[in-house]
Design a protein that fits this description.
The protein is mainly β. Strands 19, 20, 21, 22, 23 and 27 form a 6-stranded antiparallel β-sheet that branches. A 4-stranded antiparallel β-sheet has the order 1-26-25-24. It has a 4-stranded antiparallel β-sheet with strand order 2-3-9-10, with no helix packed on it. The chain starts with a strand and ends with a strand. The chain has a single domain, classed as Glycosyl hydrolase domain, family 43 (Tachylectin-2, Chain A, 5 Propeller). Helix content is 3%, strand content 55%. A hairpin with a 3-residue loop joins strand 25 and strand 26. The protein contains 2 helices and 27 strands.
Length: 354
């Protein structure tokens, strides 16, 4: 498969939004074509200066207000990247994520502007520990964004917001609660219902974290849930999977790019695959990337080396100027953002049909 790829964004291209803070990384963008431009919503994680004896955990306490929870290091069990695990069994974050707008040209390969200030942030009760991993679609005249909201009382959930201009957002609140992430919504109703893919997790595992489907009459109340795709033993996606890009409509079916992980020598590798869903019954899987061959895997330096090694995490898909191709936007190594131009025909032909 011929893939034209490019490193698009790195943390050095962004300025901290708060004086004295630093950029930890940029992650997993939402992507949408608007006229002859492509708009990315990039997750930017910032960290305040740390203290020798206390861990500083930022919390949004009001409009343009941030306070810090100070945790003595004697109460810390361990630290893993941005996560601090306390001896009482709870955890905290040492950085704060928000979204910045990045404008690309029509080709989707060149940056025209990078926002210096957040365009979407958490707020008390809705991401007071930050917002993460946006996915964006357009339905009619409305842009619809799902995002991860991390809050003290609600923990890690997926929330929903609507916009007419990608500037001002009407927040609809939590739609999938407590450790349910990787939520993507379909860009049209199917049989009169809104449809979402999501990835719930729990403390007990009978199977590894899998991709589910759910339906709603009104965007808020979701049900008719069903697990439709699961990790496979001895495969590149053997440990966990999650929807990556919003479903993309083709004549053959709904194309969904997803991420999967496998653990080898205590090192997780995140690769990207594809699956195809029936146009009229999206709970029916028609095809999937083979067990031994992901659509693409981390191989470039910006995918292999960063905050977390060997990660390619697709979250945005946009039709290329040539409709035979799509542009795929991915997070790389929890630090960079890349773009790949891939033939739709190559993607569809790469899958194993059931």
């Amino acid at each position: 498969m011929k893939v034209e790829g490019k490193l698009l964004l790195s943390p050095e291209q962004f300025r901290p939004s708060i004086r004295g803070w630093k950029i930890d990384g940029i992650f997993n963008p939402g992507a949408i074509r608007v006229g002859n431009k492509i708009i990315l919503y990039v997750r930017v994680a910032e960290r305040s200066p740390q203290h020798e004896t206390m861990v500083k955990c930022p919390i949004i306490s009001g409009v343009y207000k941030i306070r810090h929870e100070l945790v003595h290091r004697d109460k810390v069990e361990c630290e893993e990247g941005k996560m601090v695990f306390l001896r009482d069994g709870t955890c905290r974050l040492t950085n704060l994520s928000h979204f910045r707008e990045v404008v690309l040209d029509e080709s989707g390969f060149n940056v025209e502007s990078i926002g210096n200030i957040p365009i979407f942030t958490g707020k008390p009760g809705d991401g007071d520990y930050g917002v993460e991993d946006p996915r964006i679609i357009k339905m009619g005249n409305t842009y619809i964004m799902t995002y991860v909201s991390v809050s003290l009382n609600e923990y890690v959930c997926t929330s929903l917001a609507f916009s007419k201009d990608l500037k001002e957002w009407e927040r609809k609140g939590i739609i999938f609660c407590l450790q349910n992430k990787d939520v993507v919504v379909f860009p049209e109703r199917i049989k009169g219902k809104y449809v979402a893919l999501h990835r719930p997790e729990g403390n007990f595992e009978f199977v590894k974290p899998s991709i589910w489907i759910s339906y709603s009459p009104d965007w808020i109340h979701w049900g008719e849930e069903k697990s439709i795709l699961r990790p496979r033993p001895n495969a590149w996606d053997s440990t966990r999977i999650g929807a990556g890009c919003p479903p993309f409509k083709t004549e053959e079916g709904w194309l969904v790019l997803y991420h999967g992980t496998t653990d080898r020598k205590e090192q997780s590798t995140y690769s990207a695959g594809a699956f195809l869903l029936d146009l009229k019954d999206p709970s029916k899987v028609l095809a999937r990337s083979p067990k031994n061959k992901p659509l693409f895997a981390p191989k470039e330096p910006y995918e292999s080396n960063g905050f977390m090694k060997n990660v390619v995490f697709p979250t945005g898909i946009v039709q290329d100027a040539d409709p035979k191709y799509v542009l795929v936007y991915s997070g790389g190594a929890d630090r960079f953002i890349s773009v790949k131009r891939i033939s739709l025909g190559d993607i569809l032909n790469s899958m194993k049909y059931y």
